[in-house]
């Protein structure tokens, strides 16, 4: 990823198992970036927006977002981050969720999600998809945040 | 609601009886009043005529007495003065006496007592008049002294006094009758007043009762009309409400199914994922086992080898097949729920074309299994959602192809007709058929019938029926085991979407 500053991967995923499987497969794809895992929307948003080591104040990030969270909908988080005026607006967000409802997918793209991936139930496909995502992450260019730069 | 309507009917009957009774009573009272009045007036008239009659009789008696007095006065004047004018007066009065007596007799001929009195009066007059005539005649013929003497003979005085007494007796009699008749008249008038008063009171009573009843009835009528209006306006509201409720329930179920299937999927991803992880771990263990076997056989344990080589793969295999099946079921629920959420867009459908395209899409299988597929060339045209109709019919045709009897040449026949704004399509096959007890069961989710020699999850027909319901249609099967099955789809000729809430 970015050569000068390490990109943090922030994973917002309520299912511990999924998180573990995603992490395993990302690592298998050779991605060694720091992965921060949050199981609910509130703490994730707090970290994203407030934490001194969070992306708003410290460096570029990439967000992996699940839509089905216990305290809020992933779409809400998506909408909030991608809203006009949010310093994280340009942060790439990969929605990674079980929902393959067309309307839901459309809505996510409308809200500004960068990539939408449905978690395949078949594990081979799942692992494959995550590994490909890892490959994708390894070449993706993440924009620097104005605050982080300045 | 039914109960109160019944009550209303009861009160109606009660009311009708009351009103009819009241009106009858009123009319009876009126009739009675009329009769009483008629009777009273007649009675009154009769009594009046009697009273009048009495007065006439009294007057006649008085007239007679007066005439008699006049005759006497005339006679006496003539006797005294010899002036002819007095004689004239006497004769004039005398001429009127007998007609008056006849009149009195006529007027009193209903009363035997008066008749006797009249007879006596006549007799007295008759006995007196000759003396009077004689005395007047004597004066006229110049023998005045003789005449005066005759007068002095006092016969004249006695006669007039007796006559007066007799007339008085007769007057008394008439007065007695008058009193009786007056009393009778007063009685009849009193009776009339009483009758009128009673009838009036009755009329007032009936009127008041009628007004009370009518007011009550009008009030209850107004109340029931209001209730009816309320019910009427409520009915539409109730239907709308019910429809909204049903839609809400349906939406709820759809959402429930959607959420459940998603939430079930999530752990399933873990089960499958970690099963795979376990499998790869197992493979590593197996490789390790092989290495141990090759390099350090003394370390190898038989139990561990069995566990690694057999137990672990077996367990993983079962976990995997079960989760795969579960995944398919969840997907089926998800699909059903999604179909329920899809917008129905009705359009005009050429059913012959639709069946032809279904046949074409299964051409390969039809040819391979040598199945004859025939379509009635005049299928009714309907207005409905094309995709849903295609799914329903496609599923049934697919089943017909799938469950053919191996022993005989397959045949699938499509028929159609219209009945009362409903289009009925039949897809008949000569396949293995469905047992009677399973005719309803096959439409349940995950339920299948007969020998389980074909792949499938028992979703197709459940899906088909759910779809048919959504299109305001029904689907049923008529079949005998081993003789084929006929699936009947009943659809509206034109689908009308229910009003959205």
What can you see in these coordinates?
The complex is a heterodimer of chains A (150) and B (501). With 150 residues, chain A is of the alpha/beta class. Chain A has a single domain (8-138), classed as Rossmann fold, CATH 3.40.50.2300. Helix content of chain A is 41%, strand content 15%. Chain A is built from six helices and five strands. Chain A has helices at residues 16-28, 41-49, 74-82, 102-111, 123-139, 146-149, and strands at residues 8-12, 35-38, 61-65, 93-97, 115-118. Chain A has a five-stranded parallel beta sheet. In chain A, helix 4 links the parallel strand 4 (93-97) and strand 5. In chain A, helix 1 (16-28) packs across helix 5 (123-139). Chain A is globular. The relative contact order of chain A is 0.21. The mean pLDDT of chain A is 82. Chain B has 501 residues and is α+β, with helices and mostly antiparallel strands. Chain B folds into three domains: 2-221; 248-340; 344-492, Heat Shock Protein 90. Chain B has ten helices and seven strands. Chain B has helices at 2-81, 84-107, 112-140, 144-152, 155-295, 302-341, 351-361, 363-368, 386-402, 460-470; strands at 346-349, 371-375, 382-385, 410-419, 422-429, 474-480, 484-492. In chain B, the strands form two sheets. Chain B has a five-stranded mixed beta sheet with strand order 2-4-5-7-6. A two-stranded antiparallel ribbon of chain B has the order 1-3. In chain B, a hairpin with a 2-residue loop joins strand 4 and strand 5. The longest helix of chain B is centred in the middle third of the chain and has 141 residues, at 155-295. Chain B is rod-shaped, with a radius of gyration of 64 Å. Chains A and B meet through helix 1 and helix 5 of A and helix 5 of B.
């Amino acid at each position: 990823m970015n050569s000068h500053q390490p990109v943090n991967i922030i994973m917002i995923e309520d299912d511990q198992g999924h998180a573990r499987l995603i992490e395993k497969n990302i690592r298998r794809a050779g991605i060694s970036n720091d992965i921060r895992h949050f199981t609910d929307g509130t703490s994730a948003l707090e970290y994203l927006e407030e934490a001194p080591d969070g992306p708003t104040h410290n460096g570029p990030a990439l967000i992996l977002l699940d839509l089905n969270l216990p305290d809020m909908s992933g779409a809400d988080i998506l909408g909030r981050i991608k809203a006009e005026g949010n310093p994280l607006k340009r942060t790439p967000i990969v929605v990674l969720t079980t929902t393959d409802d067309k309307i839901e997918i459309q809505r996510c793209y409308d809200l500004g999600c960068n990539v939408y991936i449905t978690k395949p139930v078949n594990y081979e496909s799942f692992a494959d998809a995550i590994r490909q995502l890892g490959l994708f992450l390894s070449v993706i260019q993440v924009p620097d945040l104005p605050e982080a730069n300045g | 609601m039914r109960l109160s309507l019944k009550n209303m009917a009861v009160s109606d009957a009660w009311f009708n009886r009351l009103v009819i009774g009241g009106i009858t009573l009123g009319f009876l009272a009126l009739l009675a009043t009329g009769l009483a009045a008629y009777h009273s007036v007649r009675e009154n008239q009769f009594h009046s005529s009697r009273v009048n009659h009495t007065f006439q009789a009294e007057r006649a008696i008085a007239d007679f007495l007066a005439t008699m007095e006049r005759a006497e006065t005339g006679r006496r004047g003539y006797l005294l003065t010899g002036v002819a004018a007095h004689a004239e007066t006497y004769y004039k009065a005398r001429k009127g006496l007998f007609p008056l007596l006849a009149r009195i007799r006529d007027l009193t001929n209903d009363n035997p007592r008066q008749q006797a009195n009249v007879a006596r009066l006549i007799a007295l007059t008759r006995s007196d008049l000759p003396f009077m005539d004689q005395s007047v005649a004597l004066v006229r013929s110049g023998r005045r002294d003789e005449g005066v003497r005759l007068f002095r003979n006092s016969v004249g005085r006695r006669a007039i006094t007796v006559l007066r007494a007799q007339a008085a007796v007769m007057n008394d009699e008439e007065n007695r009758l008058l009193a009786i008749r007056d009393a009778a008249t007063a009685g009849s008038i009193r009776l009339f007043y009483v009758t009128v008063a009673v009838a009036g009171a009755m009329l007032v009573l009936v009127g008041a009762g009628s007004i009370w009843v009518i007011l009550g009835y009008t009030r209850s009528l107004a109340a029931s009309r209001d209730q009816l209006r309320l019910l009427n306006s409520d009915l539409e509201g109730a239907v709308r409400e019910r429809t909204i409720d049903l839609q809400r329930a349906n939406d709820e179920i759809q959402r429930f199914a959607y959420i459940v299937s998603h939430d079930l999927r999530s752990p399933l991803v873990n089960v499958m994922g970690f099963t795979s992880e376990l499998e790869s771990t197992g493979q590593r263990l197996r490789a390790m086992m092989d290495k141990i076997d090759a390099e350090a056989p003394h370390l190898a344990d038989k139990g561990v080898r069995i566990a690694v080589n057999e137990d672990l793969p077996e367990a993983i295999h079962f976990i995997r097949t079960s989760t795969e099946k579960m995944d398919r079921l969840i997907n089926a629920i998800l699909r059903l729920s999604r179909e329920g959420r899809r917008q129905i867009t009705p359009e005009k459908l050429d059913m012959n074309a639709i069946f032809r395209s279904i046949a074409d899409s299964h051409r390969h299988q039809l040819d391979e299994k040598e199945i004859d597929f025939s379509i009635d060339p005049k299928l009714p045209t309907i207005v409905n959602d094309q995709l849903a109709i295609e799914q329903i019919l496609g599923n049934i045709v697919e089943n017909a192809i799938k469950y053919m009897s191996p022993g005989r040449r397959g045949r699938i026949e499509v028929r159609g007709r219209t009945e009362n704004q409903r289009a009925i399509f039949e897809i008949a096959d000569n396949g293995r058929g469905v047992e009677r007890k399973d005719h309803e069961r096959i439409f349940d989710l995950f339920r299948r019938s007969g020998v389980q020699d074909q792949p499938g999850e028992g979703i197709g027909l459940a899906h088909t029926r759910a779809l048919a319901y959504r299109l305001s249609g029904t689907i049923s099967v008529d079949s005998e085991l081993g003789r084929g099955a006929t699936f009947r789809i009943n659809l509206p000729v034109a689908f009308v979407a229910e009003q959205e809430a």
